[in-house]
Fold these 3 entries.
Entry 1:
Amino acid sequence: MTKEEAEGKRIDYRKCAAAGGILAVLLLMLLSFLAGGREEEGQSVMQKAEEVKPRKEETADEEAMTESPAEQGEEARELPRVREVEKEAVGIDVSRFQEEIDWPQVAEAGIEFAMIRIGCRGSVSGAIVEDDKARANLQGAADSGIYAGAYFFSTAVNEAEVREEAEWVCEFLREYPIVYPVVYNCEGFQDESSRQYGMTAEERTELAKIFLEQVEEAGYRGMFYASAGELKDGLCWNTEELEGQYKIWVAYYPEEYSGEEGPAYEGKYDMWQYTDEGVVPGIRTVVDRNVAYFGYELF
């Protein structure tokens, strides 16, 4: 091989090596491009998924606003299995106005039942408001062996509102062992400032019946509360109609209470609120005292 031929071959080898290097570089660039494309494609898919899925905190906020207490993890308590018995039982009715109550001391004083206000609808605003002592009172009474009932102060002016009240009451009571009745309480409607002012006895009675029917469908025992003066001769309510369907809780305050005579009221009644100035150990304020002409036994 001549010198020129050998030199030519070395040039050919260099060209081949250079071409191979260029091919390798191009191959690496191609692979990098393809990998990058796949990565960008993957990022695009993830981005689309995030756009479809709500943000976690937004979902939590919506759930907090829309879930009922039961859906938020509070389980409904099964209603106690009870039978009604003939007896006289002594009790009280309380609300936030009785402040903090020492329920064990109340039980030691011989109180057998407590009717507890759980809420009201504002007589002017129309908003439903929870009694801020209701939960403590319901739990305190139950823990002390005192049978609890409940009442709601209604100012409903139409069927939609009274159904809303009944639904609110039933939902609120889900967590508590209610033994005594759930009561429809409606007062102050003769005051010109009341949103119920001008309603007829028939209209108010119909709303009371809707409320009580709804709570009984939920498994509670319904009862209607009013003063003896409002009930007498059907002055403010269709008294006979209510008496024929529900227990009646009448308010009448004699000058003295002996426990031997009932209220000066000739209509039907099952519970008597005989004073709003009662004194009971464990309660710092005066309190309404009651006697019920029925009781309950668990079974």
Entry 2:
Amino acid sequence: MKKYLSLIILAAIALSSCRANLEGTDLTHWKLQREGSKQVYDATVPCTVAGALNEAGVFGENVLEQDRYFSIDKVQFDSPWIFATRFKAEKGLNHVLRFEGISYSADIWVNGKQIASADTTVGVFCIREYDITKIAKADNTLKVRVFKAPEQCLNNGYVDWNPRPVDESMGIWRKVELISTPDVRIADVFVKPEVNVENLNEASITVEATLVNHSQAPTEGVLRGVYESGQFEIAVTLAPGETRTITVQEPIVKPSIWWSHDMGKPNLYNLNISFAKGDIVSHSRKVRFGLRDIKGEIDQYGHRLFKLNGRPILIKSAGWTDDIFMQDTRERTLNQLELVKNMGLNSVRFENIWSKDGSVYDLCDSLGIMTMVGWSCQWEWKEYCGMKEVGRFGCINDPETEALAIRYLHDQLLWMRNHPSVISWGTGSDKIIRCFCTADRTCNARRTGRCILSDPQEKQRE
């Protein structure tokens, strides 16, 4: 009897592990070394090169005290650095490697075969996916050679909140994930809430699930979604290699509304969505969302007013920045956000899409702290960006740079759009803005973003 019980337990563990892998496997444990050096360091991805070296004690204790940070030798980051890891891949499945952020470019090899080169991986905010099914084995090696950002580029930056990173934040600064599926993969899920702001007793969600059929044959299956107050099922047939977005609209019974902490409770829902062929689940995803309505309008003075769930809300906010080594833990971030609440603030402004793993947005969702995200003014400064400033668009002034900025915008909006805490997107703060002025005012938005009153007897209005 004990023998059979042990077999049942082992089978349950194996099945549990298999199902967990259907959601993707994060590749976190890596080795790091400077190209041409024999010294090897442990690195936990996501991380920057300087962050990994600091974790290894290379810079000594308390490197951020006094002026010790400025004594770090920057020359060591002029050479490429190599991240290497190993991972397993089950035979008979389709395998996709997903990189959520590389700084600033990289050569990538799987089992010695190059799948990407530095000239095709330019850009710190680009999300990249590679189908490695044909070269994957039971045991695999993955090598990523990263290059530091050049002097002229749209890079991550701390502006004047921190000293400039000694390595320009080079590294694999967001997660690397292996997604393995029999055939159909759920590439993206977007949950769009709609709330009746007149009574707050009616709400619905629109779920958009993007499916990719990696097989070379037509595939039939069922897209299932389960959440706290309901569920749905849709039969889907995909052609060989087809990518299609399936849209589902569902009412929410007795909705629990998401509020900022100063106006109510930040209620959240969990959606478990999967694609299955009979009893075999090909891929599954978990998405957390909130039911809330956010609207903005411009008043007669050019100020933006927000309404949360139909009610005017005063934005009480301050700027936020990550640790300069990008080593903030979830616990440390939670402590900081608790301080935000204790100071009476209900929002934070993230310039340049902070967070190496998205945990700060997860915590803001849970704590009821609104977030104002977007690009930093650093891309509008010639002295920081290294590129010529032109007109009202700062350093984004040629087709190549514009295309990269658009790619950034696309990938980052998809990366964070399910967070109810995110209420706005700011494209810039100094140049790439719109100054709303009434007829008797002239606009001077070059540096200050101010509306200057044309009447000299009146005071300047910010």
Entry 3:
Amino acid sequence: MFRKLLQQIHTCVRLLLCKKEEPYFALYQILGFYPGHIALYEEAFRHSSASIWMPDRHSINNERLEFLGDGLLDCIVADILYRRYPDAQEGFLTISRSKVVQRDMLDKIALEIGLDKLIIFSPKVSNLNNHVYGNAFEALVGAVYVDKGYATCFQFVERMIDQHLDLNQITQQEINFKSSLLEWGQKHRVTIFFDLMENTTDEEGKLLFHTAIHVMGGREIGMGTGYSKKESQQQAAQMALNRLRSDKQLRKQIYAEQKEAKAAQLNAQT
């Protein structure tokens, strides 16, 4: 019995010493806890340019965890805003969430916690796009969720926001919905078109501009009206972002139609 107890103590000490070594300790400094499955975090930091190809042609990189983290951030930030602004209306909460999860904010957090030093990428890539860091942060959020569950993931994201962002200041800032929509299109490889429609006038005779937003394949995802082209584009982009964030089926249809349209375009060229 005593020998068995000594073995258990020895095992615990050995594991503790291992956790003080890299990469456990480096991750502990970022996460605030030791990772349970280190391979998940290594995957979260592996850029697609450094993919590991398995015998079945399955590739290992951070894109799947990035996809998961993207959805989790939407959910967790909505949760945080709902709790902290109990009197806010749905429109304020939706816009504020868009501001917090926009690419520049995620890039900022990623760089400040040092993810740029942990990302694994191919030496053939001469320079990384800054958004790679924000993407890695999304993947890290996905890894935390898979490793530790929602409660720990929520606490981690909340701590990152509190330590690296000024939530009250961000919610008061005016967001550029057009830029955010174009960033979304770039990230998901979806071509987006802003089309100025026929102008009309209001009851007082003032000129009104109408903008429709389409994706490759012709699907309309947003429509906006304003007293300037910019205002109509912003309204249309806001509608499009809200639809894209809330309608999973719409996103699937857009991805499929985009793929078909690109294939048809290539066939026409050949």
